[in-house]
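In response to the reviewer comment on reproducibility (Comment 2.3), we provide here a single inverse folding case reported in full, input and output, so that an independent group could reproduce the run without further information from us. The structure tokens appear first.
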């Protein structure tokens, strides 16, 4: 039996690295954690789309193979990592068997027909939770997997600046860095974010979709993208194109599409938005703008500072 470990659509570093790490751990556990098959499962890491430049950099840095692409869930046994929303998962999820979930987002809308192993915790990254699973099962983390998990923690917590960061994330990152032989934590973090920030030669559409998620909020489809930038100069000339792309996404049948342009040095985000009802979005953030771009001081986390506020008004 093969178990496919899969992260969310538009895979980011946490989602790809968590899938690789969980597949490694699951394969090592064999029958110890598998009640169906005494021979033990063969777990395979998957992803729903191509690697982002940041994730490519991370995997190459630690010499880890990229996961295979999986977009179809029917007939497969799955462990979901870094998501539990149907809209962010593989096609035909209803015809798949979900055998596990490891996540750090709000509980989504997936359901299962059999008992399932779930670990969802409100920490800064899925890889922080995966580290605790290796420890719980007393399994050693391979050096290169520790390296990519370390990068995933830095990526998701924006080098510990995001409001989602917990003390556990910091402690785990230090432990992973030690296993991976990373000397300077902040230095590798900045190197990674410079790769993430590079927008040259990338189309506005790709930038909008790079870290983009759809949410079902009380029957309304809301899209939220985020671009984390080391400096804003890089996008100064393409704001109009970015706006045009989120408008197109909205026209595909969404109620609203938001794009957070996050300045990781200034620790805030500029919000671009298009909506059937702009006053809702403006009400949530207490600001409006004719240019549809507003600065939100201190807002860096989609899952903690944006999604919950929108859920409230749409519920
Ligand atoms: Mn994550």
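Designed residues, in position order:
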């Amino acid at each position: 039996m093969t178990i496919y470990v899969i992260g969310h659509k538009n895979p980011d570093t946490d989602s790809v690295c968590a899938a690789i790490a969980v597949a490694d751990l699951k394969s090592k556990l064999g029958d110890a954690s598998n009640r169906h098959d005494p021979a033990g499962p063969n777990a395979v890491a998957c992803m729903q789309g191509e690697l982002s430049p940041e994730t490519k950099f991370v995997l190459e840095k630690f010499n880890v193979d990229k996961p295979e692409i999986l977009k179809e869930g029917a007939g497969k046994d799955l462990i979901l990592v870094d998501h539990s929303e149907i809209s962010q998962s593989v096609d035909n999820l209803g015809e798949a068997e979900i055998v596990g979930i490891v996540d750090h987002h709000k509980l989504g809308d997936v359901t299962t027909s059999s008992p399932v192993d779930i670990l969802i915790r409100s920490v800064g990254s899925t890889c922080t939770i995966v580290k605790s699973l290796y420890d719980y099962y007393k399994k050693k983390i391979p050096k290169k997997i520790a390296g990519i998990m370390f990068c995933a923690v830095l990526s998701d917590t924006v080098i510990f600046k995001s409001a989602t960061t917990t003390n556990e994330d910091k402690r785990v990152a230090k432990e992973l860095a030690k296993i991976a032989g990373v000397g300077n934590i902040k230095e590798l973090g900045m190197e990674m974010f410079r790769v993430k920030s590079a927008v040259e030669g990338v189309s506005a559409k790709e930038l909008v979709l790079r870290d983009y998620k759809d949410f079902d909020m009380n029957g309304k489809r809301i899209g939220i993208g985020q671009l984390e930038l080391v400096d804003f100069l890089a996008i100064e000339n393409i704001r109009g194109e970015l706006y045009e792309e989120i408008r197109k996404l909205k026209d595909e049948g969404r109620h609203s599409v938001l794009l957070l342009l996050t300045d990781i040095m200034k620790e805030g985000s500029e919000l671009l938005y298009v909506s059937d009802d702009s006053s809702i979005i403006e009400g949530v953030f207490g600001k409006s703008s004719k240019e549809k771009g507003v600065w939100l001081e201190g807002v860096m986390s989609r899952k903690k500072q944006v999604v919950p506020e929108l859920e409230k008004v749409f519920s």
